[in-house]
Amino acid sequence: MSKTNTIRPFGWQDKLGYAMGDMGCGFSFQLVSSFMQLFYLQFIGIDPADYAVIILISKAFDAINDVVIGNLVDTKRLSKKSKYMPWIIAGGLILLVFNAMIFAPITSLPYAGKYAWCLISYCLWSIAYTMVNVPYGSLHSVITDKPNERTALSTFRSIGAALPAVVIMIVLPSIVYNKVENPETGITEEILKGEMLLPVALVMSVVAFVTLFGTTKLVKERVQREDTGANATGMKAIFSAVHSFFTNRAMLGATIATVASVALFNSTMSLNNMVFQYFFKDTSKVGMAMIGSYAPMIVFMAFVGKLTAKYGKKNVIVSAMLIGAVSGLVSIFVPMSGDMTGMLIYIVCLMGLNLGNTVFQISVWAIVADCIEVSYRKTGKSEEGSLYALYSFFRKLAQGIGQAVVSWGLIAIGFIEGEGAVQAADFGDKVKSLYFIVLAAGSLIAFLSMKFIYNISKEDEKAFAVKADDTAAEA
Could you give the number of structural domains in the chain? Predict the structure, then answer.
């Protein structure tokens, strides 16, 4: 059984502190997710096919990285006071360095040097990010064991993740793009100023560390898990966690939905940037589209607790995802122009698409905590760090898949790499269509997985709440 310590009751400090943690992760992750691909393709001059290989190799490396760090978090305590906080601080400091390394302006290197720099810097960044994100994500299941409080943490984590995304999409375009007239068409286009991304990365790295430090000061770990199952160490512990993960049907369902959501939604933001760069020819409006796309999340946040309490997380998510999937399929065929009217239609289409994805993203962390709870009650093993690391690995693998899909898609529609490269006249229309196709596919796969594989019902959630209340009464 898990025992809840008699410390400060769960409250606003925990919610704010947990939101600050994903804000810190987000200032690094969102910058890399939104601009790394553009930086290496448009400024450094990496071929899209080579970039896809770099991403897939780095994500294969993450297969080892995530599992090893997850096991270390579970088995190696850096402090008697906390299992997770020292890892967050150490990882945050290392992330400062490698976040900046990714955006170094290495244009003078030979092509092989550029290729190696991109691969090595991204792998090192992945290690640092994992050192932060795995212990931070594992915190969710030990801050509280009450489902309604876990839902609140998941909601605030989503708020923390959204803020860096909005800042990056609103502020950065005016800093990192130049307006240049296309000599062939006479039309003014947006050109990436890649040299500006290094100072941006340095500033955001410092902000990320400050917010992560805030998490360690505001959040309290209340749930202490006792290993009542057979203890294992080293490789046996890793194999044990892998077995627990793949025999947990709910975890598999949530993971498949996550892979679809992250790979074909969250990791394709560079396509959204390119839609504004080449179709609307105005990157200053990217922020407006971002705000519009997050509107469903803002509305849903006001009702998430009541809706999930009444209908259960699965039912709420599946219903929203169905709307998103249908909206995505329709959006592929909606005609729109490159003017303001077309831009408004584009934003409305994104709002419908993002409804399902944002509802899932708001609730997914509470779902993962529930999946870890199921595993603990089934096996009696305190493997939250390793289980979250495995889940995190698939999220990162999805990021690589998403960026590879984008690269291959760009090749298919005729993208020309390199600084100042001139694209074909119809490239803007093609990149817009590609973006909607990718989003629709992600919505449909995520819906099917949550509907037919994920199996924690509303009744199961109520059972968690009853046991949590019994535990609190015993403490």
Answer: 1
Q: How far is 73 from 63, CA to CA, in rounded Å?
A: 16
- In which domain, by residue range, is 302 found? 11-215+233-474
C-alpha dist (Å) from residue 446 to 207, 261, 262, 296, 432: 33, 6, 10, 18, 22
Per-residue pLDDT at 319 exceeds 80: yes
Report the distance separating Cα 78 and Cα 61, nearest Å: 25
422: Cα within 13 Å, side-chain hemisphere: 10
Tell me if 440 is assigned to some domain: yes
Of 11-25, 245-259, 460-474, the one with minimum mean pLDDT is 460-474
Residue 366 CB burial class (10 angstroms; 0-12, 13-18, ≥19): buried
Q: What is the pLDDT of residues 70-118, one digit of tens each?
A: 888 887 777 777 888 999 999 999 998 999 999 999 999 999 999 999 9
| Terminal CA-CA length for the chain | 11
Per-residue pLDDT at 229: 52
**Is residue 6 a part of any domain in this protein?**
no
> The domain that contains 88 carries what CATH number?
1.20.1250.20
CB 197 within 8 A of CB 39: yes
Distance of CA 381 to the CA centre of its chain: 27
What DSSP line would sit under 270-321, residue for residue? Answer: HHHHHIIIIIS--GGGHHHHHHHHHHHHHHHHTTHHHHHHHH-HHHHHHHHH
Q: pLDDT exceeding 70 applies to what percent of the chain?
A: 90
Tokens of 460: 């199961």
Is residue 70 within 8 Å of 385, Cβ to Cβ?
yes
137-186 per-position pLDDT tens digit: 888 888 987 877 888 898 898 888 888 987 887 788 888 888 776 666 66
406: enclosing H helix or E strand: helix 384-412
Counting every residue, how long is the chain? 475
Rounded to an integer, what distance in angstroms lies between the CA atom of residue 229 and that of residue 316?
Answer: 34
Cα 202 to Cα 11, 206, 310, 329: the distances in Å are: 33, 7, 45, 40
Q: What is the pLDDT of residue 237?
A: 73
Q: Is residue 143 part of a domain?
A: yes
DSSP for residue 423:
P
Closest CA to 216 of 86, 33, 66: 86
